[in-house]
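Before a colleague's protein record goes any further, I have to sign it off. Would you go through it and say whether the fold makes sense for this chain? Take the sequence as given and treat only the tokens as open to question. The record follows directly below this note.
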Amino acid sequence: MNISKEVKRAQRGKVSSFEKLVTSHQLILYRIARTILSRNEDCADAIQETIVKAFEKLSSLREPQYFKTWIIRILMNECYQIVRKRKNIVPFEDWKETSSLEKGYESIEVEELLSVLPHEQQELIKLYHIEDISIQDLSSIYEVPENTVKTRLRRAREKMREILEQEDEVQWKNGKIK
């Protein structure tokens, strides 16, 4: 499918072309929403709002070849809006209490490691390494130069490495590593 041609058709009012575009991007939209949001219901809401807004604002897209990054940016804004709304709400089923003893002896898993990073670094690592979004696309999404994205990724990786080294040091001191 030629994205540029489908976007131009959709901009001229052909709804089936817009449907093709959304269908071809539905998996990446879900994966990105899931990266930012933890609940499937929230992901569905964000994607639905994204599709509505994209349909309404399709005429404002000047460069059809950037449809993917444009719709991803809309999705990310919708996800952030949901995060802001739910910031102080913790669903009962998500609430878990772990003792400090358990925390000290558990190994760090990927999600736990990422949770220590600042939100923007978590998101960037997930989008680049897990969702395979290119540096160029991330640059468009975040509206920053490619070198800025590379620098932020490097800093996030360095922070993760520091955390892992600190964890190894603690385990070494506690006699866990032999």
Summary: The chain has a mean pLDDT of 82. The longest helix spans residues 146-173. The CA atoms of residues 84 and 168 lie 35 Å apart.
